[in-house]
Write a structure and sequence with these properties.
The structure holds 2 protein chains of 2 kinds. By secondary structure, chain A is mainly α. Chain A has 8 helices and no strands. Chain B has one domain. In chain B, helix 1 (10-30) packs across helix 5 (104-112), helix 3 (49-70) packs antiparallel against helix 8 and helix 5 (104-112) packs antiparallel against helix 6 (116-142).
Chain lengths: 172, 189
């Protein structure tokens, strides 16, 4: 497990260099949640119809469901981690992670429902804040954006509070 | 300002998106941050991988983009400081990140390494995106305009020269990482 991992400082530096590349070559910051919001528009197509999706001001202007740089970046990330896992014997089907299992037990449905609900909340939050850990946390912070540092500090505080409520059992 | 190198368009820009995504996904996995336990343990201060990766990336990328921008080789892309929306969104994001156990990017990458809970969370993220789109008109009317400071950067908010801010950024990242190293050392017995 440890062997497939690289030094985190090296990985961080390489992500920093990747940011420099995306800024200079593609004129785009690294970001993830816009691409996912575009995908959500594609998923709404069967229910709302093409006209319904096109009539929504968010999907019409901010996250158009189409194959473009942002949505292909999301697909690329999936492919990249898959290739990385395959080439380092790191691919493993895991449903209930260790830290979750120790606190909430081995139930698969419980973990799946929690992950689903967490996913709903995290993406709504990411869209409301206009960025996620990549778009605000890395790309925005490295440009010294006020919005991004605000996001970083508040997100981390909220995460710490949530983690301590959920995972720290009171001493008995 | 038009950057010299940003003339990629059409298929080559799409190809760049895919290629950069592949590199990003690979780095997230090799960095260990596609692991639920690593992310949740960061918020419990039991593992510091997330902070190490993020602060190194911010320091290296920050200086790199600052230099390129100074040479007019890169544009800045600042997200608007719609403070109420950013704060509310970040609060939700922190809760979601601990319950999901991944952020949007590491969640996508975690699916590629075989994590089925990350896949369930991806379905949730699609629903979250739909909820946001459906509520967007209301959000745009009631939330986004509250305390909207515009596309402002820290150097504009506090009038110090640009380079001092980047020096401070690197110094802060180094301090955080040194503190983390000390905490880790004190725990190894």
């Amino acid at each position: 497990m440890k062997k497939q991992r690289w030094n985190p400082y090296l990985v961080g530096a390489l992500i920093g260099l990747l940011s420099v590349l995306t800024f200079s070559i593609a004129d785009k910051p690294i970001g993830m949640s816009t691409g996912i919001a575009q995908a959500s528009g594609a998923c709404a197509l069967p229910v709302l119809g093409a006209d319904g999706v096109a009539a929504n001001s968010y999907w019409a202007k901010k996250a158009v469901p189409q194959w473009d740089y942002s949505s292909l970046f999301v697909v690329g990330s999936l492919v990249g981690s898959f290739l990385s896992a395959l080439t380092s014997s790191g691919f493993k089907i895991i449903t209930v992670p260790e830290v979750w299992r120790r606190r909430f037990g081995p139930s698969v449905p419980k973990r799946m429902v929690a992950a689903f609900l967490g996913g709903v909340v995290i993406l709504y939050g990411a869209r409301l804040a206009d960025g996620c850990t990549s778009g605000h946390g890395i790309s925005g912070s490295l440009q010294l954006a006020v919005s991004s540092w605000t996001f970083f500090l508040v997100m981390f505080t909220s995460g710490i509070a949530t983690a301590f409520v959920l995972f720290r059992r009171p001493h008995s | 300002m038009q950057t010299i190198l940003s003339l990629l368009s059409g298929p080559s820009l799409l190809g760049a998106g895919l290629l950069f995504g592949i590199l990003f996904g690979l780095l997230l996995h090799r960095g260990g941050v596609t692991d639920y336990d690593v992310i949740v343990n960061q918020f419990l201060f039991r593992d510091f991988t997330v902070l190490k990766v993020m602060f190194t990336a911010i320091a290296v990328g920050g200086v790199g983009v600052f230099v390129l921008h100074g040479q007019e080789l890169a544009n800045l892309h600042i997200k608007p400081a719609t403070m109420l929306a950013v704060i509310l969104g970040a609060v939700l994001f922190g809760i979601g990140m601990v319950v999901y156990g991944y952020c949007p990017g590491t969640g996508i990458a975690a699916i590629g390494t075989g994590r089925l809970d990350a896949l369930a969370g991806f379905a949730g993220m699609l629903v979250g995106g739909i909820f946001y789109a459906l509520s967007y008109d209301w959000v745009a009317a009631k939330i986004l305009p509250v305390a909207d400071l515009g596309k402002v950067r820290l150097p504009e908010l506090v009038g110090l020269p640009e380079w001092t801010w980047y020096a401070a950024l690197v110094a802060m990242a180094a301090t955080v990482l040194a503190l983390v190293a000390r905490v880790e050392k004190s725990r190894v017995v």
